[in-house]
Amino acid sequence: MSRLYIMRHGEAAPGRPDSERSLTEHGEQEARAMAAWLSDMLPGDVRTTLRIVASPYRRAQQTAQWMATPLERPVETLPIITPDDPLEPLLDWLQQEVAHTPCLLVSHMPLVGALVGRLVEGDVRASQPMPTATVAALEADVWAAGCATLRQWQSPCELLG
């Protein structure tokens, strides 16, 4: 059984181009709160092997870096997880790269909502709403449509009060 943590980036400021938008102060607070939560809840074996993979967009990279710091893990960039990328290349990547290594994937809506929906429900029309900095923790033997189980759902608003 492998683990995948799917995270939407923290709150970002408006701006153009979209790829250069930065986290707001609130977005940084969300990311710090989620980093502390994830660091506390991860089992030791997962913590030491976790891959952190982020979209190349600035706000996702910033969020991933906040997540990586307490875990003392590097951040990898995956160009196929920007907001409007199709899911099929990502599903292929998950089957190859996440079969034996736990992974935190930091990306954007609508991609993260569609990915959780597809992996858990199996329907191409399924999508989960994911507020900023929310993490969906999934487990699966195979990363394919309808094969994952949602184990936990954590939003920073529950941590920040």
TrEMBL record:
Keywords: Hydrolase
Gene3D superfamilies (UniProt xref): Phosphoglycerate mutase-like
Signal peptide: none
Any single GO CC term annotated in Swiss-Prot or TrEMBL for this entry: cytoplasm
Keyword Lyase among UniProt keywords: no
Pfam families named among the record's database cross-references: His_Phos_1
One annotated GO molecular function: protein histidine phosphatase activity
InterPro entries (alphabetical): His_Pase_superF_clade-1, His_PPase_superfam, Mito_Ser/Thr_phosphatase, SixA
Protein name per Swiss-Prot or TrEMBL: Phosphohistidine phosphatase SixA
